[in-house]
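Rotation project, supervised by the postdoc (A.L.). Task for the rotation student: set up a whole-complex structure prediction and record inputs and outputs verbatim in this book. Inputs entered:
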Amino acid sequence: MAQRWGDVLDDSDEETEVTQQQPTTTAGGLVIPPTHKSRVDSKGIQIVTSYRQHPANPKQLLKTVTKIRVTSQKVRESKAVAIRRKWTKFGDAIKDENAEGGQRATIISKEDVFLEDPNADTDLQEEDATTAIAGNLNEFWAKQQRRQLERKYDVGDAEGGAQPGWTQVGIGGAAANPAAGGKYVPPSARGLAAGVKPERRTDDVNTIRVTNISENTTEADLQDLFKPFGRISRVYLAKDKETLQSRGFAFVSFVNKQDAAQAMEKLQGFGYDHLILKLEWARPNTPKDPATSGNEYRSGYGKALAQDTKTKVSYASNLTN
Amino acid sequence: MRPYLLQGHERPITVVKYNADGDLLFTASKDLIPSVWRSENGERLGTFHGHKGTIWDLDVDRFSNLLLTASADATVKLWSCQNGECLETFTHRGPVRGVCWAEDNRRFATISDPFVEHPGKIMVWDIEQPAEPILEVDLLKVDGKRVNATNIWWTYLNEHIFVSMDNGVMRLYSPETGSLVKEIVAHEKKVNRVQFNRDKTLALTSSADFSSKLFDAVNWKHLYTYKTDRPVNDAVISETKDHILLGGGQEAMSVTTTSGKVGKFETRFFHIVYQEEFGTVKGHFGPINALAINPNGRNYASGAEDGYVRLHFFDKSYLDMQDPVPEADDDEDAEESKEDKAPAPVAGKAAGKPEQALEYDESIMDA
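Outputs recorded:
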């Protein structure tokens, strides 16, 4: 069929273009005609017809018709360029001719680079529906800061009552709803905690705990790093409460488990800045004794890096939800 | 695009330059051996052996026969481009920062740093009389402070010798008498390099004060400013598009304390008139020291502190890209002046963006 189409396009005698190749005969007595290449027609289409033996049925002949669009570009250049093209190599360049692999002076980058839009990152974020799911992280951080200030000056929200901020929230929240298992429950959602819970569970499953991050890394950097693997619902970088310095670990939640798994596989041991990243699945929240958890949080989170970070970490991840 | 990595140099790249036809690319670095490459396939054509110091600058003549290299070993050497033979050595008193052929292809100007008791000097040489320079101008101290020149050029038709200084000033000297003709205060900090367009009507400065400025190279009127957030080491004007390319990044001395991500070692693409950054190309892991764009506009080279020269061939999408034209209030006006440009630039831009993002995603997945 393609052949016929070719004929329509170009009526010139294609036979002149037939390559001087003899038909080959297989053991089964099947004659395989030589590959035929048509002339490039006025629209720049060339038809290559090749034949081979059917892999399953040796008696059958398989015909492959490939249409190729041939484009040629005429470039004008000065005659001097043509002369210079004949120049022979000199100096160290002579060695290049026999060089192999890494020894070669010119290598083609394995990495494909693009002309990137410098404003693209912000644009993408705006369009990203997933950001809406987890809420804006910066907003979250701002909220935390505000709470901190509130605690400090004892203004608190209306529910705060007599007890100061964090402890009150930790214990109060857990006490109000023991099923939450020590999770931080925002005051507004305290009565509804049971309904919100399943959603959180799925989020936890897709969360990667990233450790050994250099302290210059920002949440935006992490976002950039993990973005290629899939939709991210949340990035949380643990920061010191007072200095706001990164504490060297972070949580990245993906919308899809597969994406998370892929990221895990690809970035495990990835050299980022001067450090080697370590990735592990965030530990699911083990229900804690509600009475102690509030206190533990109070004492541990913040400066005390010497303590078991993992426990603190699970708290940190709770907080972000 | 997949750039070619030209890894012939072992030290930071100082200068990359295309010849007039754009088929050869000359590179020099702080190692002592300038190289020449074929720009069409990145193949190394040859190396030039003989200098004993850092090569700060080079210039190739109009016909790509003779190459001049300026070195910190206080010499300028004249080479044959075809076989790498050193034809002549011009001895100076201090490290030579810049060298530039005059348009007559016979004279050239050099600028040397002050050295011991010798002040910085502008010299004009004739290749027919290699023994003595035909003109020598001392760079005097300004307010008791030594100022160093960063590079030297000839303006259109050898009218003036143009020198950029490390205090942000640019000067024009007369090539006949050596007298100071004009002084232009362009930047607050060091002017790293100035590049002209082909017919030398525009000059683009790059400065350590985080900006790059476009000047009219005839009356030296300031036209546009391109602002970035890092020192600009080099900037070039595209011959085929209304674009300029800026290269720079963190100062070399603070690179080891910052990550590649925040170092901003990208090549930035600005629109020449709108002064708007519309693209970046990443890849280097050190500040870009030198940029050059092929006169045919199809490829560009960047050389960085990391010792690599990257030769980029533009994608078809870039070459076909049409610059956005702001929607004019008056339709007639727009048709008259911008006939050759895209009628609906906004649509074109919107269509191009998601495609790029998609490709980016895929490439990471493969890696």
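Student's summary: The first strand of chain B starts at residue 4 and ends at 6.
Supervisor addendum: Chain B touches chain A through 57 residues (CB under 8 Å).
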